[in-house]
Design goal:
Elements (H helix, E strand, L loop, with lengths): L1 H13 L9 H8 L8 E5 L2 E4 L3
Antiparallel strand pairs: 1-2
């Protein structure tokens, strides 16, 4: 899964949806417009963990 996420980030940077230097919030917005990703669970503000497989 990590490889797919990195590929999606690189693609978003190439198409201009994400700046070359970005924050986690910008990644979430670019990869999943709902403001969340399928890979992470937010524990608290600024704290995440990977979801179980």
């Amino acid at each position: 899964m990590e490889g797919e996420t990195i590929r999606r980030i690189r693609e978003a940077v190439r198409r201009g949806a994400l700046p070359a230097q970005f924050t986690p919030a910008q990644v979430n917005k670019a990869l999943n417009p709902g403001g969340y990703t399928d890979l992470f669970t937010q524990l608290s503000r600024g704290l995440y963990r990977l979801k179980p497989n």
